[in-house]
Amino acid sequence: MSVIEMNHLTKQYGKSRGIKNINLSVEEGEIFGFIGPNGAGKSTAIRTLLGLIYPTSGSAAIFGRNCTEHPEIRKELGYLPSEVFYYDNMKVIDLLKYSASFYKKDCTKRIRELAEIMDLDLKKKIDDLSFGNKKKVGIVQGLLHEPKLIILDEPTSGLDPLMQQKFFDLLREENRKGATVFFSSHILSEVQKMCSRVAFIKEGEIIKLEKMSTLQENNYKRINIEGVSTISKEAFDISGVSRLEVNGTAASFIFKGNINTIMQRLSETELRNISIEEPDLEEIFMHYYVKED
Fold it and tell me: What positions does the domain ABC transporter occupy (predicted)?
Protein backbone atom coordinates (compact mmCIF):
# COMPACT_ATOMS: atom_id res chain seq x y z
CA MET A 1 0.00 0.00 0.00
CA SER A 2 1.26 3.49 -0.89
CA VAL A 3 1.34 5.71 2.18
CA ILE A 4 2.46 8.76 0.16
CA GLU A 5 1.48 9.35 -3.46
CA MET A 6 2.48 12.38 -5.54
CA ASN A 7 1.18 12.55 -9.11
CA HIS A 8 2.58 15.26 -11.44
CA LEU A 9 2.75 17.52 -8.38
CA THR A 10 3.65 21.06 -9.40
CA LYS A 11 3.90 24.31 -7.42
CA GLN A 12 4.99 27.47 -9.20
CA TYR A 13 5.99 30.77 -7.60
CA GLY A 14 6.05 33.07 -10.62
CA LYS A 15 9.61 33.06 -11.89
CA SER A 16 10.96 31.61 -8.65
CA ARG A 17 11.67 27.92 -8.41
CA GLY A 18 9.05 25.65 -6.87
CA ILE A 19 8.50 22.02 -7.81
CA LYS A 20 7.70 20.57 -11.20
CA ASN A 21 5.90 17.38 -12.19
CA ILE A 22 6.92 15.27 -9.18
CA ASN A 23 5.84 11.62 -9.33
CA LEU A 24 6.64 9.68 -6.19
CA SER A 25 5.18 6.89 -4.07
CA VAL A 26 6.32 5.69 -0.66
CA GLU A 27 5.26 2.24 0.49
CA GLU A 28 4.10 1.29 3.97
CA GLY A 29 7.00 0.46 6.30
CA GLU A 30 9.69 2.21 4.23
CA ILE A 31 12.31 4.65 5.41
CA PHE A 32 12.45 6.83 2.32
CA GLY A 33 15.11 9.47 1.62
CA PHE A 34 14.32 12.72 -0.19
CA ILE A 35 17.60 14.46 -0.88
CA GLY A 36 18.99 17.46 -2.65
CA PRO A 37 20.85 20.67 -1.88
CA ASN A 38 19.23 23.55 -0.04
CA GLY A 39 16.75 25.29 -2.32
CA ALA A 40 16.10 22.20 -4.46
CA GLY A 41 12.37 22.10 -3.57
CA LYS A 42 12.26 19.54 -0.73
CA SER A 43 10.29 21.71 1.72
CA THR A 44 7.92 22.94 -1.00
CA ALA A 45 7.10 19.34 -1.97
CA ILE A 46 6.45 18.39 1.68
CA ARG A 47 4.27 21.43 2.41
CA THR A 48 2.25 20.81 -0.76
CA LEU A 49 1.85 17.14 0.19
CA LEU A 50 0.55 18.18 3.62
CA GLY A 51 -1.92 20.68 2.17
CA LEU A 52 -0.15 23.61 3.85
CA ILE A 53 0.21 25.19 0.42
CA TYR A 54 -1.92 24.50 -2.65
CA PRO A 55 -0.45 22.87 -5.77
CA THR A 56 -0.51 24.70 -9.10
CA SER A 57 -1.36 21.36 -10.70
CA GLY A 58 -1.17 17.65 -9.99
CA SER A 59 -2.17 15.92 -6.77
CA ALA A 60 -0.81 14.44 -3.56
CA ALA A 61 -2.30 11.94 -1.12
CA ILE A 62 -1.48 10.42 2.26
CA PHE A 63 -3.07 7.03 3.02
CA GLY A 64 -5.03 7.49 -0.21
CA ARG A 65 -6.58 10.80 0.83
CA ASN A 66 -5.83 14.41 -0.03
CA CYS A 67 -4.77 16.44 3.03
CA THR A 68 -6.59 19.56 1.85
CA GLU A 69 -9.90 17.73 1.40
CA HIS A 70 -9.39 15.41 4.40
CA PRO A 71 -7.49 17.39 7.07
CA GLU A 72 -8.33 14.69 9.63
CA ILE A 73 -5.71 12.46 8.01
CA ARG A 74 -3.04 14.66 9.61
CA LYS A 75 -3.81 12.99 12.95
CA GLU A 76 -2.16 9.87 11.55
CA LEU A 77 1.13 11.59 10.84
CA GLY A 78 3.94 13.35 12.67
CA TYR A 79 5.63 16.29 10.96
CA LEU A 80 8.87 18.04 11.82
CA PRO A 81 9.39 21.18 9.71
CA SER A 82 12.89 22.37 8.83
CA GLU A 83 12.41 25.39 11.11
CA VAL A 84 10.39 25.32 14.33
CA PHE A 85 8.71 28.33 15.95
CA TYR A 86 6.89 28.32 19.29
CA TYR A 87 5.15 30.52 21.87
CA ASP A 88 8.21 31.63 23.81
CA ASN A 89 6.69 32.06 27.26
CA MET A 90 5.25 28.52 27.46
CA LYS A 91 6.98 25.72 29.31
CA VAL A 92 8.02 22.74 27.19
CA ILE A 93 5.64 20.35 28.99
CA ASP A 94 2.68 22.74 28.52
CA LEU A 95 3.38 23.07 24.81
CA LEU A 96 3.62 19.29 24.39
CA LYS A 97 0.42 18.70 26.38
CA TYR A 98 -1.33 21.28 24.24
CA SER A 99 -0.10 19.50 21.10
CA ALA A 100 -1.25 16.13 22.51
CA SER A 101 -4.77 17.51 23.13
CA PHE A 102 -5.42 17.48 19.37
CA TYR A 103 -5.10 13.70 19.23
CA LYS A 104 -7.78 12.77 21.79
CA LYS A 105 -5.47 10.34 23.60
CA ASP A 106 -3.32 10.41 26.71
CA CYS A 107 0.25 10.97 25.54
CA THR A 108 1.75 11.81 28.96
CA LYS A 109 3.76 8.61 29.29
CA ARG A 110 5.04 8.84 25.72
CA ILE A 111 6.07 12.50 26.16
CA ARG A 112 8.19 11.58 29.19
CA GLU A 113 9.76 8.59 27.39
CA LEU A 114 10.72 10.72 24.39
CA ALA A 115 11.99 13.59 26.54
CA GLU A 116 14.26 11.16 28.38
CA ILE A 117 15.62 9.68 25.15
CA MET A 118 16.27 13.15 23.68
CA ASP A 119 17.61 14.58 26.96
CA LEU A 120 14.98 17.36 26.97
CA ASP A 121 14.12 19.35 30.12
CA LEU A 122 10.31 19.56 30.18
CA LYS A 123 10.24 22.27 32.86
CA LYS A 124 12.16 24.89 30.88
CA LYS A 125 10.53 27.78 29.06
CA ILE A 126 10.72 27.70 25.27
CA ASP A 127 12.57 31.04 25.05
CA ASP A 128 15.32 29.70 27.34
CA LEU A 129 16.13 26.87 24.92
CA SER A 130 18.99 26.73 22.42
CA PHE A 131 18.26 26.07 18.73
CA GLY A 132 19.19 22.40 19.21
CA ASN A 133 16.85 21.99 22.19
CA LYS A 134 14.01 23.64 20.27
CA LYS A 135 14.64 21.02 17.59
CA LYS A 136 14.28 18.31 20.26
CA VAL A 137 10.91 19.80 21.22
CA GLY A 138 9.86 19.50 17.58
CA ILE A 139 10.97 15.86 17.46
CA VAL A 140 9.02 14.98 20.62
CA GLN A 141 6.02 16.95 19.33
CA GLY A 142 6.09 15.03 16.05
CA LEU A 143 6.30 11.58 17.68
CA LEU A 144 4.27 11.90 20.91
CA HIS A 145 1.05 10.46 19.40
CA GLU A 146 2.85 7.45 17.83
CA PRO A 147 1.99 8.36 14.23
CA LYS A 148 1.77 5.83 11.39
CA LEU A 149 3.69 8.20 9.09
CA ILE A 150 6.63 10.39 10.16
CA ILE A 151 7.63 13.25 7.82
CA LEU A 152 10.93 14.91 8.66
CA ASP A 153 12.30 18.00 6.90
CA GLU A 154 16.03 18.48 7.61
CA PRO A 155 15.54 17.00 11.11
CA THR A 156 19.08 16.94 12.49
CA SER A 157 20.16 20.57 12.09
CA GLY A 158 21.14 21.83 15.53
CA LEU A 159 21.57 18.38 17.07
CA ASP A 160 25.02 17.33 18.24
CA PRO A 161 26.42 14.02 16.88
CA LEU A 162 25.46 12.00 19.99
CA MET A 163 21.90 13.31 19.89
CA GLN A 164 21.70 12.65 16.15
CA GLN A 165 22.57 9.02 16.81
CA LYS A 166 19.89 8.76 19.53
CA PHE A 167 17.41 10.31 17.13
CA PHE A 168 18.27 7.81 14.36
CA ASP A 169 17.92 4.92 16.83
CA LEU A 170 14.52 6.30 17.84
CA LEU A 171 13.39 6.47 14.20
CA ARG A 172 14.53 2.90 13.54
CA GLU A 173 12.51 1.75 16.55
CA GLU A 174 9.41 3.60 15.34
CA ASN A 175 9.91 2.03 11.92
CA ARG A 176 10.30 -1.42 13.51
CA LYS A 177 6.93 -0.86 15.22
CA GLY A 178 5.34 -0.16 11.83
CA ALA A 179 5.74 3.55 11.13
CA THR A 180 6.66 4.73 7.64
CA VAL A 181 9.36 7.44 7.57
CA PHE A 182 9.82 10.13 4.90
CA PHE A 183 13.21 11.74 5.50
CA SER A 184 14.27 14.93 3.74
CA SER A 185 17.92 15.96 3.98
CA HIS A 186 20.86 17.55 2.18
CA ILE A 187 23.27 15.56 4.36
CA LEU A 188 23.98 12.47 2.34
CA SER A 189 25.60 10.39 5.07
CA GLU A 190 22.33 10.56 7.07
CA VAL A 191 20.32 9.18 4.18
CA GLN A 192 22.92 6.50 3.57
CA LYS A 193 22.57 5.30 7.18
CA MET A 194 18.79 5.36 7.34
CA CYS A 195 16.99 4.82 4.06
CA SER A 196 16.00 1.88 1.87
CA ARG A 197 15.09 4.01 -1.16
CA VAL A 198 16.05 7.51 -2.17
CA ALA A 199 14.87 10.23 -4.56
CA PHE A 200 17.25 12.93 -5.79
CA ILE A 201 15.64 16.33 -6.35
CA LYS A 202 17.35 19.08 -8.33
CA GLU A 203 15.86 22.49 -9.19
CA GLY A 204 12.36 21.29 -8.29
CA GLU A 205 12.45 18.08 -10.32
CA ILE A 206 13.13 14.44 -9.44
CA ILE A 207 16.24 13.45 -11.38
CA LYS A 208 16.65 9.92 -9.97
CA LEU A 209 14.65 7.44 -7.89
CA GLU A 210 16.59 4.42 -6.74
CA LYS A 211 16.97 1.68 -4.15
CA MET A 212 19.85 2.43 -1.82
CA SER A 213 21.27 -1.04 -2.44
CA THR A 214 21.32 -0.39 -6.20
CA LEU A 215 23.13 2.91 -5.73
CA GLN A 216 25.82 1.22 -3.70
CA GLU A 217 26.21 -2.04 -5.58
CA ASN A 218 29.09 -3.04 -7.78
CA ASN A 219 28.33 -0.99 -10.87
CA TYR A 220 29.91 2.09 -9.23
CA LYS A 221 33.61 2.08 -8.35
CA ARG A 222 35.94 4.73 -7.00
CA ILE A 223 39.32 4.09 -8.69
CA ASN A 224 42.61 5.68 -7.63
CA ILE A 225 45.78 4.99 -9.61
CA GLU A 226 49.44 5.95 -9.47
CA GLY A 227 51.42 5.59 -12.69
CA VAL A 228 55.10 5.02 -13.29
CA SER A 229 55.09 8.13 -15.48
CA THR A 230 52.74 11.07 -16.11
CA ILE A 231 49.15 9.99 -16.76
CA SER A 232 47.31 11.44 -19.74
CA LYS A 233 43.82 12.78 -18.98
CA GLU A 234 42.68 11.64 -22.44
CA ALA A 235 43.49 8.01 -21.51
CA PHE A 236 40.55 7.89 -19.09
CA ASP A 237 38.21 10.43 -20.66
CA ILE A 238 35.85 7.66 -21.74
CA SER A 239 32.18 6.70 -21.35
CA GLY A 240 31.33 5.69 -17.76
CA VAL A 241 34.04 7.81 -16.15
CA SER A 242 33.04 10.85 -14.08
CA ARG A 243 34.76 13.17 -11.60
CA LEU A 244 38.10 12.51 -13.30
CA GLU A 245 41.04 14.21 -11.60
CA VAL A 246 44.58 13.87 -12.97
CA ASN A 247 47.61 15.25 -11.16
CA GLY A 248 50.93 14.25 -12.69
CA THR A 249 51.41 10.53 -12.10
CA ALA A 250 48.17 10.21 -10.03
CA ALA A 251 44.54 9.99 -11.15
CA SER A 252 41.18 9.30 -9.50
CA PHE A 253 37.65 8.88 -10.88
CA ILE A 254 34.24 7.24 -10.46
CA PHE A 255 33.45 4.46 -12.93
CA LYS A 256 29.99 3.12 -13.76
CA GLY A 257 29.59 0.30 -16.25
CA ASN A 258 31.20 -2.95 -17.32
CA ILE A 259 34.27 -3.36 -15.11
CA ASN A 260 36.12 -5.21 -17.90
CA THR A 261 36.07 -2.04 -20.03
CA ILE A 262 37.94 0.01 -17.46
CA MET A 263 40.29 -2.87 -16.57
CA GLN A 264 41.32 -3.08 -20.21
CA ARG A 265 42.04 0.66 -20.25
CA LEU A 266 44.00 0.40 -17.00
CA SER A 267 46.11 -2.44 -18.43
CA GLU A 268 47.36 -0.04 -21.10
CA THR A 269 48.90 2.21 -18.39
CA GLU A 270 52.02 1.15 -16.51
CA LEU A 271 50.94 1.41 -12.86
CA ARG A 272 52.83 1.68 -9.62
CA ASN A 273 49.70 1.38 -7.45
CA ILE A 274 45.90 1.04 -7.69
CA SER A 275 42.94 0.99 -5.31
CA ILE A 276 39.34 0.16 -6.24
CA GLU A 277 36.70 1.02 -3.65
CA GLU A 278 32.95 1.36 -3.19
CA PRO A 279 32.11 5.07 -3.52
CA ASP A 280 29.99 6.67 -0.81
CA LEU A 281 26.57 8.10 -1.58
CA GLU A 282 27.92 11.64 -1.81
CA GLU A 283 30.15 10.71 -4.74
CA ILE A 284 27.27 8.88 -6.45
CA PHE A 285 25.02 11.87 -5.82
CA MET A 286 27.58 14.22 -7.40
CA HIS A 287 27.79 11.84 -10.36
CA TYR A 288 24.10 12.50 -11.08
CA TYR A 289 24.42 16.25 -10.59
CA VAL A 290 27.49 16.58 -12.81
CA LYS A 291 25.97 14.31 -15.45
CA GLU A 292 22.79 16.39 -15.61
CA ASP A 293 24.57 19.74 -15.99
Answer: 4-228
